[in-house]
Amino acid sequence: MKENDPSSVLLFLVGTKKDLSSPEQLSQIEQEAIRFSEEIKAEYWAVSAKSGDGVMNFFFRVASLTFEANVLSELEKSGARNDGDIIRLTDSTEADRTPTKRKSNCCSSENGRLDTLY
Question: Where is this region: Disordered (predicted)?
Fold first, then answer.
């Protein structure tokens, strides 16, 4: 599977029916699964379709990794992978923000029209 282009393959080891195991059994199974997933360079996910535990998070993970890989692939194809071409999103707090000045009559309706924000 990884012979042609190993970087394009997302590999997951998914343990199902986790609701059928006792906590002791689950712990032992997960230890073995994690060891094996590390050997094959896969992500391990324990899920239960019956209870829904872990299912949504697993699918969100697959979707986000796939989306990220596709975006990066398109950026590389278009040659837009320079630092100036990438927008970085960071967390900020209210204290970091400075208020922006707006036109004082931003929402007036003089002459039957609404002015826009500047």
Answer: 83-118
